[in-house]
Design brief:
The chain is of the alpha/beta class. It is built from 17 helices and 18 strands.
């Protein structure tokens, strides 16, 4: 009997948006839903109980990092990733494909998943340190797989689609991803085509290996659509990956900030409607509203916890930074009327003090708030799609969040 299925309960008029439920062996995920990132089998600075307290339904961990430390075989011996990290809810693992980009083309150029139009049009103005550019990459691609150089000790490790799937089988997450190549937004169209063909071959190999393993009833496998910023490539990838017998789909790769919504719509207008879609690595509030409207059910991003550790927190009136002098004596909670643990118990002044004192509790309290904020923002999208008020909710939320005071 399959441990995975997806139901659609309601749809957003005149768009691809919808509300649904992903059923897994470790519980249901009510969609749309924000997936909290626990890269190394932990959400940084938080216990599993604290993560649950934010309203998080599902966590995603990183295949590459867990393979290096403590090792997927070790995790399997200890009972699987759910048991090891003491997480009882739904769990996802990525394929390691993003590390093909981040440890390869993106390593020495400080390139992210989202590029600005001026950077794409004028790549010669993109600040690249020549000394950094000459440093060896930590990921080298060939037709069959990728050689990674460990960021821990420099040792070489070779990932093929089959290897990535084997690692993810050992980790035991409910939803796993096919191995792919995430390309830089600065790559030529010629290379984008070459990489896309490789991703499609790897997707087929990942799927065949997964089915042959007998793990198909225990773990759902998502294929990943690539194609960069090119409409034809994106649509071609959605057609090819969508025709394969995956349980769901990821939309990966790099985007141009201004055109991300178009790229997502190109994909989701083609991908099978009856299967869930996950937008990989996107977490800005405006982008999440767009992703939901364009038909994404799940999305993950490190931003809520990463910016939290640097003193930045979300509020309904936009982001604030607690390292600013004005918060030293501010007795208010981080965000008015927020019901998270942090806001119910601590002031901005106290948390600002923790940052100045370099106390780890600062990371914990701001991370709790930021995850709660994003999770409940997306919960609001789900509720308003169900009751017909999504567009009003979006307009009101974004008007307040992006108001320049």
């Amino acid at each position: 009997m399959r441990n995975f299925s997806f139901d659609i309960h309601n749809e957003l008029p005149n768009s691809l948006g919808r509300v649904g439920t992903v059923h897994t062996a470790h519980g249901d995920i009510n969609t749309p839903a924000f997936v909290t990132v626990g890269t190394k089998g932990t959400v940084k600075s938080l216990t599993p109980e604290q993560v649950t307290g934010t309203g998080t339904q599902v966590v995603i961990a990183n295949t590459y990092h867990l393979y290096l430390e403590p090792g997927d075989e070790q995790i399997k011996k200890l009972g699987g990733l759910h048991k090891v990290m003491n997480w009882s809810g739904p769990l996802m693992t990525d394929s390691g494909g993003f590390q093909v980009f981040s440890l390869g083309a993106g390593l020495n150029k400080k390139i992210g998943k989202i590029a600005k139009k001026e950077e794409l049009l004028l790549p010669e103005t993109h600040a690249i340190d020549e000394d950094e550019e000459m440093k060896p990459k930590k990921a080298t691609i060939d037709p069959n797989g990728v050689t990674f150089r460990s960021h821990i000790d420099g040792s070489a490790h070779y990932f093929t689609p089959e290897k990535s799937i084997d690692i993810q089988h050992n980790l035991g997450a409910d939803i796993i991803f096919a191995f792919d190549e995430c390309t830089s937004p600065f790559e030529s169209l010629h290379y984008q085509k070459e990489a896309l063909e490789r991703t499609h071959r790897w997707a087929k190999r990942s799927l065949e290996h997964h089915k042959q393993s007998g793990r198909g009833n225990e773990q759902a496998l998502f294929g990943i659509v690539q194609g960069g910023r090119d409409e034809n490539l994106r649509k071609e990838s959605a057609e090819i990956i969508g025709a394969m017998d995956f349980d769901g789909f990821g939309i990966g790769g790099s985007f141009e900030k201004e055109d991300m919504d178009k790229a997502v719509e190109w994909c989701n207008s083609i991908l099978p409607k009856e299967k869930p879609r996950h937008l990989l690595g996107i977490g800005e509030p405006m982008d999440l509203f767009t992703a939901v409207e364009k038909g994404c059910d799940l999305f993950d991003c490190v931003s809520p916890t990463r910016i939290a550790r640097n003193g930045a927190v979300y509020t309904k009136k936009g982001r604030i930074n607690l390292l600013n002098e004005q918060f030293r004596d501010d007795s208010k909670s981080l965000d008015e009327n927020c019901q998270c643990y942090t806001c119910k118990n601590y002031s901005r002044a106290y948390i600002a003090h923790l940052f100045r004192a370099k106390e780890i509790l600062a990371y914990t309290l701001t991370s709790i708030h930021n995850i709660y904020f994003i999770v409940h923002m997306v919960d609001g999208m789900r509720e308003t799609i169900l009751n017909g008020d999504f567009m009003a909710y979006k307009k009101d939320f974004l008007a307040k969040y992006y108001t320049i005071s």
